[in-house]
Amino acid sequence: MNRFNLTFRGEIIEGHDPEQVKTRLARMLAIDDPAKLQRLFSGDPVVLRRNMERKEAAGLYARLRQQGIQAELVKIGERGDLHSGESVHAPAAVPPAAARTADSAQPPNVPAPEATTGARKIIRRADLAATKKLRGADSAQLEAKEKALRKALTAKQAEEAKRAREREQALAREADLKAKREAARQQAELAAAKREAEQEAARRREQQRREQAEATALRQAELERARAQEAAEKAERERLEAEERERLAAEKAERERLQAEERE
């Protein structure tokens, strides 16, 4: 599993206030010494965190960038070098020793015997076999590299497919949760609308009851007024009739008195 160091060279992302960035970094790293904090911004590379997993390193890297801090993720070498991300170099190959020739065995100033046709064929066959062997080794190395690349590509594709499935599952869960929330919201709205409708119906019934009661009271009052007026009119008629009878009786008595006086 790849592991990373998080380094910092004192660079601040453009658009951020340097003083605020320094204050945030000091708070994140719990640095109280201003001189120590200033050394972080000297331009020399400083390792802020070592030997982190990819997820942890990516999360901290993103947090630092949000705070305006230009950090850098450095992959740790295969042999676990925690101090830098340099690659580990293998020692240089030792060149093969020079092959001895048949001439080197000859004494000086003594000409070598001319090679025969059979010797030349043997040498040519040896050269061809060596060349074939080298080509076979190169082909095997190339095939091994291709196999490793295919394996890495297959693993990468499998990892990407796994991540795609996880993303799809996360999206499906999010969509399901969103649908449930929407259904709950609609249900709550329906319940609220139902309560409001019931309350409105109750208000209307109460208003109708009050209006009916008021109308009944008004009719009763009008009926009482009509009865009182009728009684008053009846009393007035009776009074007028009584006065009329009294007037007629008085006139009658006056005529009778006059007639009596005339007879006398």
Short descriptors:
264 residues; mainly alpha; 68% helix; 3-stranded antiparallel beta sheet; single chain; rod-shaped
In words, what does this structure look like?
- The chain is mostly helical and 264 residues long.
- Helix content is 68%, strand content 9%.
- The chain is built from four helices and three strands.
- The protein has helices at residues 18-29, 34-40, 54-66, 117-263, and strands spanning 3-12, 46-53, 69-75.
- Strands 2-1-3 form a three-stranded antiparallel beta sheet.
- The radius of gyration is 59 Å and the shape is rod-shaped.
- Mean pLDDT is 79; it is low at 78-116.
Shape: rod-shaped
The overall pLDDT average reads 79
Instruction: Describe the main β-sheet briefly.
Output: 3 strands, antiparallel
Sheet/helix structural class: mainly alpha
